[in-house]
Design goal:
- There is one protein chain.
- The chain is α+β, with helices and mostly antiparallel strands and 520 residues long.
- It has three domains: 138 residues, GAF domain (Beta-Lactamase), CATH 3.30.450.40; 147 residues, 2-Layer Sandwich (Beta-Lactamase); 204 residues, Alpha-Beta Plaits (2-Layer Sandwich).
- It contains 14 helices and 18 strands.
- Strands 11, 12, 13, 14, 15, 16, 17 and 18 form an eight-stranded mixed β-sheet that branches. The protein has a five-stranded antiparallel β-sheet with strand order 2-1-5-4-3.
- Helix 1 runs antiparallel to helix 2 and helix 3 packs antiparallel against helix 4.
- The radius of gyration is 37 Å and the shape is elongated.
């Protein structure tokens, strides 16, 4: 009979465990379906535990969705922090008991499940609490995994938000390597180098550290190889890269932008130490690639905006600094060299030679792009184009060249623009008359101005009476003349290059302009 009774007791215990398991599973399935947080679902779980064990109340001390410590109680539960360091049956006082079972997630302690009793708990109460803890462990493990995944993804995203793209990439790759322990990561992406198009840049990381990058002089052979095959790599031909780096098992991510007209802006190959990537690692690489794609898009957009104003060297220097807008591009007063360069004879050429809007537009586009390139070659800033007049500033945005050098750069740019303007007549495609070529009328000045981003569109420009005077001076110049205000001549320090001092009274300017013409 004792064996029969023991068998019946075991069957009854298993039945009660099964009943508790079914009830818990059903409740947790609803919680997953409805995406309920622990705060909503835990009271009903604790009610089930109390009901099936005969406890007066229950509590769970664990970590919630934010991985913060929480204590959930239900019923007549008297939680004591000291219970977190115990397990098994604990006598709390006369006719007061607790059963404590540890919670464990992936081998790491994750809190305690506790049931409180007014009398000694039944023999199977401990096994029921253990079953409750096992089922709850699985639910908490999913929450913990999701939270940790979120934290990793957020950390990667934050790293890539670094205003300096190269630094953000290096930091993100270090973080990624800690999570998935990759061997090599080869990244090729488009960099919007200028208004004319893009160039291809690359980065190669090994063990999470930058090993090679575009223009790397330490390994010119590798640099030549990547540049030779980068375009085909972006188009999907990764064979040369796989052979060059000995990649057999790898994960490939394509960085695509655009919806209506998708464009590949980058491609990435990653190798795993273990040969294949776990599903979680693949998901993390997908998220990394998505954040990286957006960061490259944002970087290129930022570069394109700056590259309409500054030369490539200045754009690179600005984007290597945090808060570069506040530091360098917000309006501030400085002494600058100013250039106004206008096409002389433009109206005549349009009316008598070119005649059609298409031909006129082709001339303006050709001349203005070359004129702006000349500004940039000499360190100038392209302010704007007003009609057929190009305006350049010398000194911004860093103001790290002396006033003499600013004037020297402005004059060199003016001479280049004049030369390329005169040479346009030799290009048959533009349809100009070589017997009556275009020329340039230039005004140059050195004056204080407030320089920076202005207006709702953040246009980079300068304001001062000196700007207005330069515009008036340029209006006095005839074809081929380069007129320079006296402060410009004085700062340049080469009076022999200029003609006699002249003056002119112009509209809306109180004092007469004092200037000299370049004679060379």
């Amino acid at each position: 009979m004792d064996r029969v009774a023991a068998l019946e007791a075991e069957v009854d215990r298993l039945r009660r465990e099964r009943a508790l398991s079914d009830a818990l599973d059903e409740r947790l399935e609803l919680a997953l379906r409805d995406k309920e947080p622990l705060e909503w679902v835990m009271p009903s779980l604790l009610d089930l535990l109390a009901h099936h064990t005969g406890a007066r109340g229950a509590c769970v001390a664990t970590l919630d969705e934010s991985l913060s410590e929480r204590v959930f109680t239900q019923g007549a539960a008297a939680f004591e922090p000291s219970l977190l360091s115990t397990e098994g049956r604990v006598e709390l006082g006369p006719a007061s008991f607790a059963l404590v079972h540890p919670l464990d997630v992936a081998g790491e302690p994750f809190g305690r499940a506790i049931a409180f009793f007014d009398a000694a708990p039944a023999d199977d109460a401990a096994s029921l609490l253990e079953r409750f803890a096992e089922i709850l462990d699985n639910h908490l493990a999913a929450i913990a995994l999701s939270r940790r995944k979120y934290e990793v993804v957020r950390t990667l995203s934050d790293a890539l938000k670094d205003p300096v793209l190269a630094r953000g990439l290096s930091r993100a790759c270090e973080l990624l390597q800690r999570q998935i322990d990759f061997d090599d990561l080869v990244l090729v992406f488009r960099h919007e180098e200028s208004l004319e198009g893009s160039v291809l840049r690359y980065r190669i990381y090994r063990d999470g550290k930058l090993a090679h990058r575009g223009g790397d002089v330490t390994d010119p052979g590798l640099d030549h190889f990547v540049r030779e095959h980068a375009a085909a790599f972006l188009d999907g031909d990764d064979r040369p890269f796989r052979e060059r780096f000995g990649l057999r098992r790898y994960r490939e991510e394509v960085l695509i932008t655009g919806v209506r007209s998708a464009r590949v802006i980058g491609r990435m190959l990653v190798t795993s130490r273990r040969g294949e990537f776990h599903t979680a690692d693949r998901e993390l690489l997908d998220r990394f690639a998505d954040y990286l794609r957006q960061r490259i898009v944002d970087f290129n957009r930022e570069w394109r905006r700056l590259s309409t104003i500054f030369n490539a060297q200045t754009c690179s220097r600005l984007l290597l600094e945090e808060e570069y807008v506040e530091r360098w591009l917000r309006p501030r007063e400085h002494e600058i060299a100013i250039l106004y360069a206008d096409l002389a004879g433009f109206t005549r050429v349009c009316e008598q030679v070119l005649r059609t809007p298409e031909a006129i537009g082709r001339l303006v586009n050709t001349w203005s792009s070359r004129a702006v390139s000349a500004l940039w070659r000499h360190g100038g800033v392209f302010d704007k184009m007003v009609g057929d007049c190009v305006i350049g500033l010398f000194g911004p945005p860093f103001f790290d060249r002396p006033r003499e050098a600013r004037c020297r750069d402005a004059l060199a740019a003016a001479l280049d623009i004049r030369a390329l303007t005169r040479a346009l007549a030799d290009e048959p495609d533009l349809g100009l008359d070589p017997r009556a070529p275009l020329d340039l009328a230039v005004g140059l000045h050195l004056a204080p101005a407030s320089v920076g981003f202005f207006g709702p569109n953040d246009d980079y420009t300068a304001f001062s009476s000196g700007m207005n005077n330069t515009a008036r001076l340029q209006g006095l110049a005839t074809g081929g003349e380069i007129l320079c205000m006296q402060p410009f001549v004085d700062a340049l320090g080469a009076p022999a290059r200029f003609g006699e001092r002249r003056t002119a009274v112009v509209k809306n300017v109180e004092d007469a302009l004092v200037f000299r013409a370049l004679t060379e």
